[in-house]
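We both want to read discrete structure tokens more fluently, so let's practise on a single case. Would you write everything just below, so we can both look at the same thing?
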Amino acid sequence: MSLPTVLSHYLTHRPQRIALLAHINEQGSITRAAKAAGLSYKATWDAIAELNNLTLHPLVERSVGGRGGGGARLSEEGLRVLRLYQRLQALHAQLLGAAQDNADLDLLGRLMLHTSARNQLAATVASIEHAGINDMVHLDLGGGLSLRAAITHDSTDRLKLVAGAPVVALMKAGWLTVHALGEAIPDTANALTATVEALELAAPGPGEVRLNLSNGQTLCALVDNPRLAGLERDTTVTVSFDPGSVLLGRPL
């Protein structure tokens, strides 16, 4: 599918994420918003977690009370993003109508990338340590949390990374290890304290655990079912992962 066609579908039918924001704003309930968006309850919360992870301020907030009991609502940032999208809709027809040649748009389509990584955290480069052909990039996640990414110096140059640069840190769920508090973790690993939000056993395994960080971001980890069965909701754990497992992306 060419990019003009993708753009037309994206803006005419509303992308799933933006549609979900609109439904939450209209319904004030995760259950009703999921139904309106044609998503499962779990898929809806996964989408919300991804949205909140990619912004400095959460787009969706839990609310207490309201229609049908507790639910969710858009934050001021969420409302701002939704209004921005509505303005983009107005520009959509103008953009495609003015295009004389779709080749440039198709090129942009090839440059855009969707990723299979479940964990995508917005971060800011705090500092960079150079060590031969490799660099250790220290990232600030906000709220006093940080992590490290080990990448090649060539990647640092290609991404034009400097202190203060905004990036997205990507980790596949299978690269994360969940530990009980006090369990030994290698000094070289990233380690983040988190609270268990949800558990889902799978057959065959591994199962899935969703974790809340203190800064409002979330992580998803794959855990063998026997170990997953020993975890409980609302318990505090430590999540570890190797700096070499952290991929970095930077907005164009």
Q: What stands out?
A: The helical segments are 3-12, 16-27, 30-37, 41-53, 76-98, 103-111, 153-159, 225-229. The CA atoms of residues 51 and 156 lie 26 Å apart. The radius of gyration is 20 Å.
